[in-house]
Amino acid sequence: MLILELIVKKLDASATGVYLITVTPFTDSGALDLASTDRMIDFCLDKGVTGLTVLGIMGEATKLTAEESRVFVKQVLTRVAGRVPVVVGASAPGFAPMRELTDSVMTLGAAGVMVAPPSSVRTDDQIVAYFDMVNETLGKDVPWVLQDHPVSTGVQMSTPVILRILKNSPTCVMLKHEDCPGLAKLSSIRAASERGEVRRVSILTGNGGGLFLPEELTRGADGAMTGFAYPEMMVDVCRAFAADDIEKAHTIFDAYLPLARYEQQTGIGLAVRKHILAERGVIASAAIRKPGPKLSAADIADIARLTVRQTRRLAEIA
C-alpha cells in the first residue's frame, strides 16, 4: 500500500474531465462480484475517464455493510493502481463512521471523499454549521467534494449557502453540482469566483447521467461526475468542448441522448444502467440488491431498440 500512497495524487481544485460514478457489481445471489469490479475498472479506463467515484447513490452504497464498503473500495483502488484519481462517497448518519471510512480509504489510496448534507439539516445556518463539523471531522489533509443533490437528500442549498460553505472550507476542492434546474445556479457560483468573492473550485456536474452536459460546460462546469452506461459519451463531449469544437460536442451528445434519457427514469434507472453494462460485457450480472427494481420484457425491448438506433447514428456521424 505504500506504493499507492506515493503515486496517488490527491484531489484538488484543478480537476477537470469525467469522474465516472460506478455501479457496484453483484452476483445473481447478491454477493459482491470482485471479478466484474476489475473488468468494470478496465472498461472505464479504456473509455478515457479522468477519474472514478465509488460508493455514490447509484453505487448502492447504503446497501453495503461497512466491511463490504472497505472491500469494494480496496478492490477498485488496487485495480486502478494510481492511474486516475478515485473519490469515495463518505456521507454517513454520524461523524464517527464518516471519519472511520475516510481514514480507511485515504490510507488505501483514495484521492478524496465526497459528502452530502443529511436530510436533518434544513435552515441555511444548520447546513453551514453541519459542513463546519465536516471540516473538523475530516481534518486538514483530506480534500473533499461538496455534493449538492436535493432530489436525494431533500436539502436545498442556495448559491449564497454554497459560497458560505466554500469560504469556511479550505479543503473542499470540488462542488458536485446536481441541482435541477441548476444552470442559473451554476452560472452564479462560477461568476462569484470570477469576481474574487470566493476561491475557484472545480465544478463537476451530475444531473441525470449528463442530460444537460453541453449546457453545463457552456456555463462554466469543468466536466461531469455522474454515471451512464456509455461513459465515452461524456468523455468525447468534454474533449470536444476542451478543443473549442462546440458543434461537435452537441452532435456527439445528441446521438446518445435518447438512451441517456431512458436510463434516467425514476425508479428503474439503475436497473437500466446495469442491464446495458451486462449486455456490453462489463459486468457479469445486472443484479441489484434488494430492495430494487426489475426490468420488464417491454423495458428490455425498448433498450434494444434504442441501442440499435444509437449505434446507427454514431456510425453516421463518425
From TrEMBL:
Keyword tags: Lyase
Family as reported in the entry's similarity comment: Belongs to the DapA family.
GO cellular component terms listed in the entry, alphabetical order: cytosol
InterPro entries noted in UniProt: Aldolase_TIM (IPR013785), DapA-like (IPR002220)
Keyword DNA-binding found: no
Highest rank taxon of the organism: Bacteria
Residues the entry annotates as binding pyruvate: M225
Recorded GO MF terms: 4-hydroxy-tetrahydrodipicolinate synthase activity
Full protein name: Dihydrodipicolinate synthase family protein
